[in-house]
Amino acid sequence: MRYKKTVRLILIFVIIVGSIGLFYSNVLQPPFIHINDGKRLVNPRGTDSIYIYTEDILVAHPPKDTLERMKMMINYHDTAGLSLADLKKRGDITFYYMGFSKNTCATRKFYLEKQRNVECNSNEIYIGDICIVRMEESPDKWKIEISYNLGTEPDADYIGPKLKYYILYDERDSNFYEKHKYDEIVRYYHELQERKRHIKGE
User: Fold this and answer.
1) What are phi and psi of 99, to 5 degrees?
2) Distance, first Cα to last Cα, the chain
3) Which of 102, 166, 178, 197 has its CA 20 to 30 Å from the CA of residue 189?
4) Sheet bearing 126-134, strands edge to edge
5) Could you report the per-residue pLDDT of 80-118, keeping only the tens digit for each?
6) What is the DSSP letter of 154?
């Protein structure tokens, strides 16, 4: 009887220590982990080959509020990502993508350890992305858009999360901002860029 109690206490102790270790391994993660996949050549069906540039960001503690999540993505990209000006200078990129996912044990294994067999429920871990796209019909024009995960259950015939898209900037429309300035996230992005231009001009 005493032996069984001892074994039970040891098991309880191991479970508690393991739970504490798992808790702190997640809590003590850096706010962002940046995985730069870089440039690669792709050949979409029915189109010419293009170069895309991708970056994946693991976020330890994403905001719960949707608007704050979008602002978080915009701010991080503005600080650490390739800007539209950078892409124009390079001249060889057609599509730029920065995706944001929650930092979990599964996503760390998938992105950092390259364990592609790890199952990650994209509807639970995917936050959203920022894309900068060169327009096919107007190669000298670019569009910047942001998407976020709605968090709703995907349709039965669709794999992946349901996303909502916002256009932040569109060079094809010279009056884009005037038309959309009452949209808070468009205004937030625009004012951020204006502050940067003002600082550079000082």
Assistant:
1) -105, 145
2) 79
3) 102
4) 32-42, 50-59, 95-102, 126-134, 142-149, 163-170
5) 999 999 999 999 999 999 999 999 999 999 999 988 888
6) P
